[in-house]
Amino acid sequence: MKPGLLDLCGAMDDDVLKTGLYPRRQDEVSSPPDSATLTPEPSSGFRTVEDECSWLISPDGLTDWRLELSYEAYVESYGDTPVRDRAKTVMKSIEEDYASQYGSEYESPGKSTWGDRATVFYMPGGAPEGSEYSVIMRKKGVVCELSYKPVENGAEADEEAFQAQADPAARALSDEIHFLLPD
User: Tell me, what CATH number does 111's domain have?
Assistant: First the structure.
């Protein structure tokens, strides 16, 4: 894969957020860092592409939610560890972080159409921070985190409302990764 092709934030802009969500990008739009273009090249044993991006969206046209995407893609391995194995290890670590922060009772499997594996953490409202819905998804050698939460402190949204927004985003990311990265 040529440097610059894997831009999941751009894919969200182009494929998911051009609908009626009234998206407003909150970060600076730029090309994601690709370790193949860095000098000197990092010695992690993998070619990586990483990025973070965020938007304000209004699913109902009235209430603002913050949508955050971060991802780490292991594009190719320079050693003995396959990129998929590295992604599995990273995903497990992220899941453990979420479970220790929020409790495993808020954890459930994601949809089968969300990558090779997905885990959902839904924290219902009641806390001062309000409700939050996070998807940790792995597809090939890529691990993505999608987080949705109402902007207003203490605001609540039910799990079905969050899932309705996460589903097209996770499917679009999975498709983008499928077409860009080799098996």
Answer: 3.40.1000
